């Protein structure tokens, strides 16, 4: 599974985890609201039970609900009309509250119409009181009739205590979900690092393959009996082997540098480079393969158009070598033109061939790792689909872009477009 696919799966799993946590929080809010409504309902039932136990109003039972007010969250007020015994009301009220499972402490205040304070206040604790009595005096609600006030100072704490099961189960669920998210993160991170390591090996294996092929061809030429009578040719191929050996040594050193780095981007080192010199060097490195394929390679760059850029010479040269290698590989009688110029304020390097071409529908996937066009003679050519991906990484590291212009049966042009930081 590629890291991009795994990244989407981790993202979807993270979204799902957040949704579950959000739903759980929403559900806790619903349960809290339900417990609050249940508390209110049970208090009202307790007051109605008190009305039925004591003859403190003359109103018919069907209208008792109209005598009860709920002026504030912690307060209930119910009307009394007849003479009553305060201690008796408090005693009966305590039994009613216990019967309806209202098991929290309450202040009972007795108010007479026209007064500015309660005539008397009685504190009713629960069976196992866990709350302090050090609370503010109950509020006064002025009315033109006598009433009894119920003030529950620890109502919210009591309601929350009723939700202990939900809090514990939710906390356990959150711990499990957070643990799952952490596991997913570390799994993705390890998978990503493993993929980076694999890509690293694949890319540099591909980078070493071309120089080794050039050295093999050169060595075969040097093993020919008649080579001793051709000193210029002997020197040429010996020089090629020396150049490719130096190139491999440089790449080994670069490999070791990257191995010490945990960055995914290529560590490029920009220096002033003349593009014409870079292209000619790339062609020289590929000369044995060019000779083997009997290819015609043109580099129509004169000194007036020789452009200087700040680039990583080794990497950009490798990009040109990869494009040149592909042009040779996918052409029967290769005719390749490598050119450079200016385009919309940028500098481009063009590699144009007369090969088999690439259909439009396949072009968007060319730079994906391990991708190979599933048509024509492509499957008869050895390779792992790494070259163009590595070219794109090199150009991306230079903050450039790649354009493709290709027609099946006609040929293909790859245009490497780079920022014109320095022009000559």
Distance between the termini: 47 Å
Question: Which sequence of SSEs, written as H and E, runs from N to C?
Answer: HEEHEEEHHHEHHEEHEEHHEE
Roughly what percent helix? Answer: 40-55%
Provide the domain count. Answer: 2
Strand order of the largest sheet: 1-2-5-3-4
Sheet with the most strands?
Answer: 5 strands, antiparallel
- How big a fraction of the residues is strand? 15-25%
Given as residue ranges, the uncertain stretches (5+ residues, pLDDT < 50) are 376-382
Explain what the structure shows.
Strands 1-2-5-3-4 form a five-stranded antiparallel beta sheet, covered by helices on one side. The protein is rod-shaped and about 135 Å long. It has helices spanning 3-53, 86-99, 155-162, 164-222, 231-259, 275-285, 287-293, 313-329, 360-363, 387-397; strands at residues 68-72, 75-79, 106-111, 120-124, 147-151, 271-274, 296-298, 308-311, 335-343, 346-352, 401-407, 411-419. β9 (335-343) and β10 form a beta hairpin. The protein folds into two domains: 3-162; 270-424, Heat Shock Protein 90 (2-Layer Sandwich), CATH 3.30.565. α6 (275-285) crosses α8 (313-329). The longest helix is centred in the middle third of the chain and has 59 residues, at 164-222. With 424 residues, the protein is an alpha+beta fold. The protein contains ten helices and twelve strands.
């Amino acid at each position: 599974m590629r890291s991009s696919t795994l990244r989407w799966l981790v993202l979807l799993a993270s979204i799902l985890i957040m949704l579950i946590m959000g739903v759980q929080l929403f559900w806790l809010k619903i349960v809290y609201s339900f417990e609050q409504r249940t508390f209110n309902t049970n208090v009202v039932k307790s007051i109605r039970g008190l009305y039925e136990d004591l003859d403190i109003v003359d109103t018919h039972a069907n209208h008792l609900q109209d005598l009860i007010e709920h002026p504030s969250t912690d307060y209930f007020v119910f009307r009394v009309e007849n003479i009553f015994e305060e201690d008796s009301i408090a005693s009966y009220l305590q039994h009613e509250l216990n019967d309806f499972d209202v098991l929290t402490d309450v202040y009972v205040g007795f108010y007479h119409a026209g007064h500015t304070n309660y005539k008397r206040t009685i504190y009713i604790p629960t069976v196992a009181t866990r709350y302090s009595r050090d609370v503010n005096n109950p509020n006064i609600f002025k009315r033109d009739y006598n009433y009894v006030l119920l003030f529950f100072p620890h109502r919210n704490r009591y309601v929350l205590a009723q939700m202990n099961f939900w809090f514990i189960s939710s906390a356990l669920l959150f711990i499990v979900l957070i643990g799952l998210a952490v596991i997913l993160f570390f799994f993705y991170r390890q998978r990503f690092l493993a993929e980076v390591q694999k890509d690293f090996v694949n890319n540099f294996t591909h980078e070493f393959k071309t120089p080794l092929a050039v050295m093999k061809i050169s060595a075969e030429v040097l093993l020919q009996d008649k080579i001793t009578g051709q000193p210029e040719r002997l020197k040429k191929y010996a020089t090629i082997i020396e150049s490719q050996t130096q190139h491999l040594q440089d790449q080994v050193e670069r490999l070791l540098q990257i191995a010490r780095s945990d960055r995914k981007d290529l560590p490029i080192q920009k220096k002033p480079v003349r593009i014409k010199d870079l292209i000619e060097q790339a062609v020289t490195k590929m000369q044995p393969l060019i000779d083997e394929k009997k290819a015609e390679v043109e580099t129509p760059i004169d000194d007036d158009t020789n452009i200087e850029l700040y680039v990583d010479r080794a990497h950009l040269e490798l990009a040109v070598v990869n494009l040149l290698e592909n042009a040779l590989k996918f052409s029967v009688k290769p005719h390749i033109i490598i050119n450079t110029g200016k385009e919309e304020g940028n500098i481009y390097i063009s590699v144009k061939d007369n090969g088999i071409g690439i259909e439009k529908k396949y072009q968007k996937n060319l730079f994906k790792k391990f991708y190979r066009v599933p048509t024509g003679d492509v499957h008869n050519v050895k390779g792992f689909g790494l070259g163009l991906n590595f070219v794109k990484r090199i150009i991306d590291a230079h903050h450039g872009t790649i354009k493709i212009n290709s027609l099946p049966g006609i040929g293909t042009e790859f245009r490497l477009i780079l920022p014109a930081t320095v022009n000559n």
